[in-house]
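Weekly structure sync, notes
Attendees: PL (lead), two postdocs, one rotation student
Agenda item 3: pending single-chain targets
PL asked that the sequence for the first pending target be pasted directly into the notes so everyone works from the same version. It is reproduced below exactly as submitted, 133 residues in total.
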Amino acid sequence: MKIAVTFENEQVYQHFGHTSQFKLYEVADGKIVSSTILDTQGSGHGALAGFLKGAGADAVICGGIGAGAQAALAGAGIQLYGGVSGSCDDAVAALLAGTLAWSADATCTHHSGHHHGEGHSCGSHGCGSHSCH
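Predicted structure, written out during the meeting:
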């Protein structure tokens, strides 16, 4: 099994469609056997589902994620665990232990053409005309 996590500075990156890297974990017998950092090469939003499928990902852990990307992941047969924050390693360990706190309703609704500059993370907040949960 392979689990991909949106990645930035060892933390779960909070906007799936804008992540520049994933940390990909190889899991066997319920334990992490290896991990590697994958650069998305500029892929974004729905295109990331194909990128992850090509990497062999069975599941993805992320913060906020738009409806289009959710649909693309579902279409690729990749299980989604959204609404997660904190350490990537801790999130995967919690998933394997069956204790990961995640939300089936982890959405980003600010895909109307404007995005904040660098440093913006989509946690559980509202700002301007968008919000990420």
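Discussion points:
- Residues 88-97 form the longest helix (10 residues).
- The radius of gyration is 14 Å.
Action: rotation student to compare against the earlier draft before next sync.
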